[in-house]
Amino acid sequence: TVACASCAAVLDATDPNLRVLREAERLRITPRIPLGTRGSLPAWGGVPYEVIGFQVRTIRVDDVPYSWREYVCFNPYRGFRYLTEYDGHWSDVAPLSALLAEAERSATQPVVRWDGATFRHFQSARATTTFVLGEFPWEARTDDRVSVTDYVAPPRMLSRETDRDEVTWSLGTYVAPDVVWRAFGLPGSAPEPKGVY
User: What pTM did the predictor assign?
Assistant: First the structure.
């Protein structure tokens, strides 16, 4: 899908007439990294990626909404990477091609063992897409819902997303905000992170 940067209408990119899937969103959110911006984080080994999509996802915990921003980054030779931002805290997120085993139950909480580390269960929630803009490698729409389970071994986080059709795993690694700002040549300085991530 493609969400128009001017009017935020969501279009079906597979339809030659770009069929409108959803009318323009009433809510307008400006991405901190504009669509079309190219950059390369140190972990990307100098390979440039272009920001092609942006979405906001929201969960509710104890009836309190928490939202974070996700950026779809694309390189035609390397595929997709993602950047996430919550309250000024950033993560570089890579999809994992291998399916991970289900969480093991330890004495106190579920864990996932991967890449020589033990990732402990942090939280499980239902995430809803509340805003979309740009291009996505799936049919992204507002009100999309997935079950998300996060396991942490700081500064890394394994995330498991499940919808009715598939299960996907990704690995997020914390990135300092100023590193993101420099990598994408953004003006000014990165907003100061709030609280503990």
Answer: 0.84
